[in-house]
Amino acid sequence: MAGVHEDFGEKIGGAKKDLWKDRGLYADDLEAMNEREAEKFVKKDNVWKKPDYAAMLEEGIPLGVVYFIKKARDGLNASPQYYRTDDTPEKRTARQKEYIKTVRELQTVLSDVRTVEDAMRAYDRFFVDNGYLEKVQGWVSGIHYRATKKGQDNPVITNKLSNTMLIRSAEYFERNFTQKAKKEQFCVSKEQKIPKGYAIHFNDGKHTYSKNDDWKPGTYYVTKGYSILRTNFETKEAALKWVQELAKGRNKNGKIRFVPPQLAHVKRTGPDYRNGVEITGQHYLDTFGFRGGEFGNWMNQNDRQTSLNMGFEALKDLASALKISEKDIAYQGTLAIAFGARGSGNAAAHYEPLRTVINLTKMHGAGSLAHEWWHGLDDYLGTKMGAKGMLSEQPRLYAPFQKLIDTMKYKPETPEQAAKRTEAQTERTRKNAASWLDSSVLASLKRYGNEEQMETYAVLREAFLSGEPGSVGQISAFKKNVTGRVIPKSERERLEIFERMLSRMQAQEAPQIGRTETDFYRNSVRMGKECEKDGGYWDSNVEMTARAFACYIKDKLPYTSDYLAGHADCALTLVSGKDGEMEVLKAFPVGEERRAINAVFDEIIQDLKREQLLTHADVTLPLSVSELREAADGQLSMFGVGRPSVMDQLAANRPADKKSPAQTIFRKNHEPEI
Predict the structure, then answer these.
(1) b (16+ CB within 10 A) / e for 402-419
(2) Which CATH number describes the domain made up of 281-410+521-658?
(3) In the chain, which residues fall in CATH 3.40.390?
(4) Cβ–Cβ under 8 Å, residues 487 and 457
(5) Which end of the chain is more exposed for a tag (fewer CB within 10 A), N or C?
(6) How does pLDDT run across 612-644, given as a tens digit for each residue?
(7) d(Cα 598, Cα 600) in Å, to the nearest integer?
């Protein structure tokens, strides 16, 4: 029944609704994963969910014991470690299963630890009972531990883990776990935690004093290191509130994560590819050759229908813009698509290379389809070209991609820029040359020479800095005449290099045109500094090419297709300029830079067609008559029982009504306006 939309095609797998995330990862779960997924998901936190340490304390488990459990868990590597001999997928999978099994073994042991005595027995229960260590009776030292072959072959068994869990005495436990937990404010709530680096003390009046005798006994004071920041707080709570506000102000970095704005309306003014048909998942399989499709469990049928309709038209627009076969949209059957099924934080949309699937969220995803489709193509071409990941990360494997990266990041200098750069380079060279010359000659001349000889040196020095050939030899001879010593050979050779460099600079009639960074690249770097914690996302080849491609598609289409590329020009924010005035920072290409980048995209698409990785198609056709009939057969409306069927709607429309292009508007109630 066309009116009810469920997941279609091949099961994609790996969606949040299908994962093991609630119960944790077991070795058997690897059977359903491909290599890239296993590499990503086999992590400690996925195998053994982070325990609720605060709940343990509420159950009555001592602070030091809970801290011991945490430190023991922290002693595990965050992910599997591999030996050099783990050089095949089968061996890496075996190592991943071993990692999961070992983590589970430690989890089992620590889940029974409730007292200090339990903690002291945990070492033997994990290491000895599982066969990683054995107890050996020594001649003099008594019983000690020795690693077995099983322990030596398992990279999870480390000295860090062993040293953490080996408790020598109750006093050792008190010092290394209970006291450290208190010092680190372990499990103290955020509201009660003293900021790192600060401390709150009580003034008992016995060991404190002040010059003006204004430090009241029975109050609290705040320190940072050896510095007293403020005194005379009546209560500890008052001191805590003050220091938290102080630390908050000093640590504030002002960075705000960029989230693409939600489009108020999703407009489209292109050809009517649907002819009023309500699109189904089967249309995606038949028209584009998608591997499969998914919907989020929380998406109702209206949401699903709207997403299917708009996505279908947008993908048709994409094929039209690139003049490629519709089957190329799914990269010859390797791509899957999801609507709201695989959301990731605040992301409007994302591409998953692990499962080669594009996900678009119900609302924010509108406008990002072209951007995410490029990520998929980037990944697909990377596989074809032998890259380890996206092709844009290894562009030298494909010359057109290298040209794209170069064009995005660099552009030819203007004559004015070249002149300014050349002048600055010449000045730096002259300054360095003068410094080397003075260090070789000046000290001895001042010692042995007179005022007239110093004036002569100044003339020779200026000739050298002007690049006059033979000037170094003249200065060396002059130095010998005055001091009895020539410039040493090694220093003279360095000065002769400077002499040749300066001579070439003087002989150059016009500055050579070099290259400078594009505004697109500079703004992307700055966008990262403004909106990222660590940087490296906005100015990465992967993201810059995707943002540029969305702009390219928007420019190629002679009409509006918001669902496809409505976010192309939205990567901007307000920043403070050097003069303190607010300015708009655009992290997408504009103007002449955009035209140059678009030209390279044209070259890439044409070359991919020549290499038969894409197929040229002059025309993108609407649904055929047979498809219309199949869609209309038994179709039920999801927008109310009173709505006419598709065939009734088509029959009611006169040919004259079809002269204006179809438009789809995504309203607040998520229903399309037909």
Answers:
(1) eebbebbbebebeeebbe
(2) 3.40.390
(3) 281-410+521-658
(4) no
(5) N
(6) 999 999 999 998 756 555 544 534 333 333 333
(7) 5
